[in-house]
Design goal:
Largest sheet: 9 strands, mixed
Structural class: alpha+beta
Order of helices and strands: EHEHEEHEEEEEEHHEEEEEEEEHHHHH
CATH class of the largest domain: Alpha Beta
Number of strands: 18
Radius of gyration: 22 Å
Shape: globular
Strand content: 25-35%
Helix content: 25-40%
Length: about 375
């Protein structure tokens, strides 16, 4: 289970991102990235370096990384929705005196529904932050510091001075929410029903407004949402987004719960598997916390059948790579390939994820398959970080 820290100040995160981009070049408390890649050691190492440097440079206040912004033009490009529920585990595994980090998906009206801006908030803890062990070309014990816009190694022989608290505090105050922003956001969200989506909202503790939308279906007398979008509009934070997976939503006066399912199976053996429950708990003093719990138990199948499916999938990927025109049955198998490869991964058959990553550019030619590929990686990342 991963419990995120209380949020003490209700901040409109979209306004905060705008203020950071408009008034501040990259500096000792703020960095921006077009994207981050945590799928390999190099990407993880660079991300950890920046987290370490920002934590050490700002021991008394928040630091930020904005993801999805073109560095040269400052244009907001957006990135895929990223579920960070186990990202703190990665930070704790590689950093000594690890800061508390929060990765939030911030919705912007001009971006497509499947794109957001990533906002990483970093709050330092007591003591110097350093690498716990080797990763990529960085050695365990390395300490990084923010020198202007550059994260660099540094020997610390003097006490770090708190030089940014006033500036960061003013930026956060400028981004404080107001009733106009909240009402505008609720109205804009409810307009999604014009696209055939079921939309609802709920106010908690007279302060927090959750909006959600999606298509609904019933199975075994249970209601499920799909094509789901869930936002806390006070802070412009997207809590959940998926074009494929299905969820059940429940709430009472004090909490809002999202139970996510993933549909996996072979042929007609498809069934829903609970993946994760995310619960927001609201308190009368204007604070809330998020509790995430992984519930997933992988489905297991006959290994001979899975080896056959795995080899068939490899043949399909080879055909796609060579530009061979696929038949109707092959196109259907290609659409199901990410899910069946994910099953192979959970059953330790071959190297399905590595093979898909090797053919990533080919999969992009088939939008539905590529979308399913990204969803498969998202599910795997959740389960992996939890383990």
């Amino acid at each position: 289970m991963n419990v995120l820290p209380y949020i003490r100040l209700m901040i409109n995160k979209r306004l905060l991102v705008k203020n950071l981009l408009a008034h501040n070049d990259e500096n000792s408390f703020y960095d921006k990235k077009l994207r981050i890649d945590l799928s390999n050691k190099e990407g993880k190492a660079k991300f950890l370096k920046h987290i370490c440097a920002l934590s050490n440079t700002n021991p008394k206040n928040n630091s930020y990384i904005v993801i999805g912004v073109d560095d040269a033009s400052n244009e907001i490009i957006g990135v895929d929705f990223f579920d960070d529920s186990k990202l703190q585990n990665l930070i704790n595994a590689y950093l000594v005196n690890a800061p508390i980090i929060l990765y939030e998906n911030i919705a912007f009206p001009h971006l497509p529904d499947d794109k957001v801006v990533g906002l990483v908030t970093i709050r330092a803890q007591e003591g110097l932050t350093a690498l716990r062990k080797n990763i990529w070309k960085y050695y365990g014990g390395s300490v990084f510091f923010r020198d202007g816009s550059i994260s660099m190694p540094k020997v610390f022989d003097v006490e770090i001075k708190d030089i940014n608290s006033r500036i960061v505090g003013e930026l956060e105050r400028q981004a404080s929410n107001n009733i106009e922003h909240t009402l505008d956001s609720v109205v804009a969200f409810l307009e999604k029903r014009q696209h055939g989506l079921k939309t609802q909202y709920k106010v908690f503790k007279e302060q927090f407004v959750i909006c959600w939308s999606g298509k609904t279906k019933r199975k075994n007398d249970e209601e499920y949402y799909y094509r789901v979008d869930i936002e806390m509009v006070n802070e412009q934070v997207r809590l959940f987004y998926s074009a494929l997976d299905e969820v059940q939503i429940s709430y009472d006066e004090d909490s809002f719960s999202i139970l996510e399912f993933v549909e996996l199976g072979i042929g007609d053996q498809q069934r829903y598997h609970p993946l994760e429950r995310q619960t927001l708990q609201f308190f009368p003093n204007g604070t809330y916390k998020i509790v995430n719990k992984i519930l997933f138990n992988p489905p297991y199948f006959d290994r001979r059948t899975l080896h056959h499916i795995y080899n068939t999938n490899l043949s399909l990927l080879a055909k796609v790579n060579k530009g061979v025109v696929l038949g109707e049955r092959e196109l259907l198998d290609l659409r199901q390939l990410p899910e069946t490869m994910l099953i192979c991964q959970f059953n330790n058959v071959g190297e399905p994820i590595e093979k898909m990553k090797a053919f990533k550019e080919d999969l992009k030619k088939f939008p539905d398959t590529y979308k399913a590929y990204k969803e498969a990686l998202r599910v795997l990342r959740k389960v992996k970080y939890n383990s």
